[in-house]
């Protein structure tokens, strides 16, 4: 698992990523199992035309958390091959959190899950495949 | 299929949605089969930490196009139940386009596909389930 | 949660389902959280052309376990809207087990996860949407 | 694209695969775009406990067709990384057909779609990722 300067550099990479910054994604916490939690204080910019949070916001946060968690656990960069998200409840405001769970790390491919919560309730579930970059 | 004032109102709803505007999503065209194309001129704000377009950008554009296409075809509002996206190529810049294809419209659920292109090449494929709102 | 005669009837329905019987799917156990484990002793009939267990076998077992778990938890019949499975390792033989986890039960739709194990290792992960039948 | 003896050998591999034979999967046709159609005459053995065709049957047929189509197009063996299927209509009988469509063939990963029809209507849609075996 990454630690020290290598982890600090990975941290800066995720926190400075332009699209993550555009949305307002913030660091949450590291978990002992290698997982990462990222968070996002919601505001009006995150809404779709129906006045609830756009699904793309939750997907972006979950993808970032899972990617970060894989990079931390495996110790190298990765790219999303595919991602599936189930939306469980409409979200109108508060702070979104996304937490990564490693399911299986192979030599080239990694499978991971993610859970998105808001105000104490789970609002989305993610299952995704990443490819490790050489 | 929606037309006239009802379609104009749906158009305004998608084009004025805050998150779509934050990203810079623009209208593309209507297709005779009911499909809709939306587009997004890319800039630096859409990048992830690796200098390519964030997967959340492509997902958001595809979700918006598919949702708009369903609303136009079925004539009512809908919400994303789940969405799966496969990323086919890294994207560094240009104009993204996403086009919706209706697969099956049931009484309560609608299944649709989406294709995302950039500079003449397909960069993502989407398969998704929506629920119709009463 | 279903119990007594209603659960016995549900049990017979799943155990007598022709395709489950064709594969050789057996009951495993009930979990306190409402989950269900089903199992499948593998033999040569379950293989694909490459000499490993066909992905359709693992999907069928996982779908049956999740469906059973939802029916038990929610107390009524359900049908698969869509299902996504990630295969984590090739399987050559032994006993497959699939265990269901309820993620979110709505009024009409239910989201659930499933894990498939073989000989102590996880071999597949499932994320799926079901519709409740009236 | 595979042809001649290499294609004949691939054909035998898919038609003789034990699980495909257990279900009764038959060859359909080759398409000029590299796609493959497989078919399955349905009988009572394919049903679930509700008297309709088990989702695992459609998934298995679609997975086999897509896998065969990729192997034919790319000229080598492949394995399913993950597969997502949307069920569009309940199926009670007739002949199922599944047709593959290549979406994107990379150096290591291939993305493909599949459509399952029965008696003139589409009954399932598939989006899947395969890994090429060396």
Key terms:
alpha+beta; homotetramer; 134 residues; 6-stranded antiparallel beta sheet; 6 strands
Walk me through this protein's architecture.
4 copies of one chain form a homotetramer. Chain A has 3 helices and 6 strands; from the N terminus they run H-H-E-E-H-E-E-E-E. Chain A is an alpha+beta fold and 134 residues long. Chain A has one domain: Thiol Ester Dehydrase, Chain A. A 6-stranded antiparallel β-sheet of chain A has the order 1-2-4-5-6-3. The two termini of chain A are 17 Å apart. The model of chain A has no long low-confidence stretch (mean pLDDT 97). Chains A and B meet through helix 1, helix 2, helix 3 and strand 3 of A and helix 1, helix 2, helix 3 and strand 3 of B.
Radius of gyration of chain A: 14 Å
Proportion in helices of chain A: 25-40%
Q: Widest sheet of chain A: strand order?
A: 1-2-4-5-6-3
The largest inter-chain interface, given as chain pair and residues per side, is: A-B, 36 and 36 residues
Uncertain runs of chain A are none
Give me the oligomer status. homotetramer
CATH third-level topology of chain A: Thiol Ester Dehydrase, Chain A
Task: Characterize the largest beta sheet of chain A: strand count, sense, and whether it forms a barrel.
Answer: 6 strands, antiparallel
Count of spatially separate domains of chain A: 1
Distance between the termini of chain A: 17 Å
Instruction: Please name the CATH architecture of chain A.
Output: Roll
Record field, number of beta strands of chain A: 6
Total helical elements of chain A: 3
H/E series of chain A, N to C?
HHEEHEEEE
Q: Could you report the average pLDDT of chain A, rounded to the nearest whole number?
A: 97
């Amino acid at each position: 698992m990454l630690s020290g300067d290598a982890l600090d550099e990975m941290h800066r990479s995720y926190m400075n990523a332009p699209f993550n910054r555009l949305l307002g994604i913030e660091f949450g916490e590291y978990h002992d199992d290698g997982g990462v939690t990222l968070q996002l204080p919601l505001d009006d910019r995150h809404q779709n035309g129906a006045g609830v949070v756009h699904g793309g916001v939750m997907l972006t946060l979950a993808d970032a958390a899972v990617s970060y968690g894989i990079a931390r656990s495996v110790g190298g960069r990765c790219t999303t091959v595919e991602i599936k998200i189930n939306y469980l409840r409409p979200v109108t405001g508060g702070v979104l959190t996304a937490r990564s769970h490693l399911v299986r790390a192979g030599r080239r491919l990694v499978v991971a899950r993610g859970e998105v919560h808001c105000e104490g309730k789970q609002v989305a579930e993610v299952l995704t495949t990443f490819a490790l970059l050489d």
